[in-house]
Q: What sequence folds into this?
């Protein structure tokens, strides 16, 4: 896969999560994809992955994941993205957290995604979140 094709997948991913377009999000992931969230167990398969995103973003009525920097491997098979995750909690509290997502990409789809962020800072910023 080319680096530009990998970049297209990453752009489609961020458009889908920021727009809460669950059908589009499902399409950017491979059928047997795995998502490894910070401090959580891996989530396997497109339906479970989409359900996880829906549950996460339900807690943040306003949210934006803004890619700050994207680094794509020369073969297009992996990418690292630095992200500013900003928004408002269900209690109305504004927050901003920096995260890094690492993507494995094959055949135009994300096969794995691992996310890292300062979980203590995230917990402090979103302490008033209700499910």
A:
């Amino acid at each position: 896969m080319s680096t530009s094709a990998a970049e297209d997948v990453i752009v489609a991913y961020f458009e889908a999560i920021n727009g809460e377009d669950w059908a589009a999000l499902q399409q950017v992931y491979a059928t047997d994809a795995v998502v490894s969230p910070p401090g959580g167990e891996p989530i396997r398969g497109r339906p479970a992955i989409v359900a996880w995103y829906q549950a996460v973003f339900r807690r943040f009525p306003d949210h934006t994941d803004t890619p700050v920097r994207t680094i794509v491997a020369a073969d297009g098979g992996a990418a690292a993205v630095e992200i500013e995750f900003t928004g408002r909690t269900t209690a109305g509290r504004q927050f901003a957290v920096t995260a890094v997502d690492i993507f494995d990409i094959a055949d135009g789809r994300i096969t794995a995604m691992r996310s890292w962020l300062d979980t203590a800072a995230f917990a402090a910023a979103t302490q008033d979140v209700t499910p």
